[in-house]
Design brief:
Distance between the termini: 47 Å
Number of helices: 0
Helix content: under 10%
Number of strands: 5
Shape: globular
Order of helices and strands: EEEEE
Bound molecules: zinc ion
């Protein structure tokens, strides 16, 4: 029997519209994460509810 020891956040990738999971402890505001599916970089804009947007270098404000 497999026990899920870590909690994950489900992220919807704004680029490929797929979904991937990250450990909840990696999911905090302003954290840049990489999509498992298309390798796009997304930045966390909100923890609750979980929200991300596509990270671009031009977004540096
Ligand atoms: Zn993606």
């Amino acid at each position: 029997m497999k026990i899920k020891a870590i909690q994950v956040a489900v992220i919807f990738c704004p680029d490929c519209r797929g979904q991937f999971e990250v450990p909840i402890e990696d999911f905090c505001e302003d954290e840049v994460l990489e999509c498992d599916l298309c390798s796009a970089e997304v930045i966390v804009t909100s923890e609750k509810p979980p929200r991300v947007k596509l990270f671009t270098e031009a977004d540096d404000f």
